[in-house]
TrEMBL record:
Gene Ontology molecular function, alphabetical: carboxypeptidase activity
Protein known as: D-alanyl-D-alanine carboxypeptidase family protein
Coiled-coil annotated residue ranges, if any: none
Annotated EC: 3.4.-.-
Entry superkingdom: Bacteria
Record family assignment: Belongs to the peptidase S11 family.
Alphabetical keyword list: Carboxypeptidase, Cell shape, Cell wall biogenesis/degradation, Hydrolase, Peptidoglycan synthesis, Protease, Signal
Residues covered by the Peptidase S11 D-alanyl-D-alanine carboxypeptidase A N-terminal domain: 123-367
């Protein structure tokens, strides 16, 4: 067995040279092939990789199909077992397929471990999936570690804005005059702006809310905070007080928008000694849960793909919404907030309610594949029996 295992690895080197890729390649003509001694069907059984070693071949081992290390989180389903002979040695091999059935072939049994592959998100630095009905975290990766969260911060700003508005149309229509050259300058920045401010112009609270929510306007979020609390500093204190009231011990704010102080100071809006807001993925999910439960209108507001606000187009960057690139009908995603800074990376807090299931809240932080990994995380969350209605 050991000799066959070694020869199999040597053959893999002859076939490919280096491990990687799905493309199949032929072995040199002089390489000996594997011969079938016996084959039998077996009950379909789940396996996953045992280590970084191993590859799937065709039965004669003249063509490599894929390396296991290229699919670290794949569950393989074995349906056949064979004894293969190579030279004077024999070994036991399984015929396996992935879940989609588009990758299949034969692999030495010693490379596999029985059971489904543990679920993971390879790109996210931190992530959680939460049952919105119960507030229970059903899956977590570094979920209690406080990290920069970029514009995901705005869900707290939106919460405090909605609390101040208190459902009154008079508050939605209240006009806020822009008297800060710093906010005007920020609004004109390609990197930090988006929704342009005109000095001395008056914007309604609803206009600023839409710009902050949909277009993730940093200057609009700061202007809302000043309206809510009277000043930027007072608003940030209110953010931290609200986090404390909710017993979020992994949440600390220095910014109403999610921009870091290293960027805010140039506009006159630096606050505190820390550079960035730092909130754990779990606490982000809890903030989102409070926002949706106390102000369910955000689920309607957050589904708007784009709208004109004061003559400017505000575009919602949630690409899991209907009509967007990563939309999947079964997940029924209807929110919630994106975020990005170079320090925080791509961040996203999402929510949706699959038919027959509880609503799910997902958070991925510093994730280059924030939308595809959110879909995977939602699917995994729904696999728990506790998520069923």
């Amino acid at each position: 067995m050991a000799n066959l295992h070694i020869k199999s690895r040597l053959l893999a080197v002859l076939v490919i040279g280096t491990m990687g890729g799905i493309a199949s390649q032929q072995v040199p003509a002089q390489a000996a092939t594997y011969h079938t001694v016996s084959t039998q069907s077996v009950k379909k059984t789940a396996y996953h990789k045992k280590s970084r070693k191993g590859a799937i071949f065709n039965k004669k081992h003249t063509r490599k199909v894929v390396n296991l290390k290229s699919h670290p989180n794949t569950t393989w389903y074995a349906t056949q077992r064979a004894t293969l002979k190579h030279g004077k040695t024999k070994g036991i091999y399984f015929y396996v397929k992935n879940g989609k059935g588009n990758i299949k072939g034969w692999i030495w049994h010693g490379y596999l471990k029985k059971g489904k592959a543990p679920f993971t998100l390879s790109k996210a630095k931190a992530a959680v999936a939460m049952d919105e009905s119960t507030g229970k975290v059903v899956w977590s990766k570094n979920g209690n570690s406080a990290r920069p969260i970029a514009s995901v911060t705005k869900i707290m700003t939106l919460y405090l804005t909605l609390k101040k508005v208190d459902g009154k149309s008079s508050n939605w229509n209240k006009k806020i005059k822009i008297k800060s050259h710093g906010l005007v300058s920020m609004s004109r920045s390609a990197a930090y702006g988006g929704f342009h401010f005109t000095y001395g112009h008056k914007y309604t609270v609803k206009q600023l809310y839409d710009a902050a929510f949909l277009d993730s306007s940093n200057n609009s979020a700061i202007a809302l905070g000043q309206w809510v609390a009277g000043s930027n500093a007072k608003f940030i204190k209110k953010m931290n007080a609200q986090a404390k009231a909710w017993k979020l011990d992994k949440a600390h704010f220095v910014s109403a928008s999610g921009l870091e102080n290293s960027d805010l100071r140039r506009y006159g809006y630096g606050y505190g000694s820390a550079n960035a807001n730092k909130v754990s993925a779990k606490d982000v999910a809890l903030i989102a849960r409070h926002l949706m439960r106390d102000y369910p209108r955000v689920l309607q507001d957050g589904q708007v793909g784009s709208k004109r606000v004061n003559g400017q187009l505000c575009y919602n960057y949630n690409n899991l919404l209907k009509g967007r690139k990563y939309y999947r009908a079964s997940l029924k995603v209807d929110g919630l907030k994106t975020g990005y800074t170079p320090l925080a990376g791509y961040c996203f807090v999402g929510t949706g309610q699959k038919s027959g299931k509880h609503r799910v809240i997902t958070v991925v932080l510093h994730d280059a594949n924030e939308f595809t990994e959110t879909r995977s995380l939602m699917d995994h969350a729904y696999s728990f029996k506790s998520m069923a209605n």
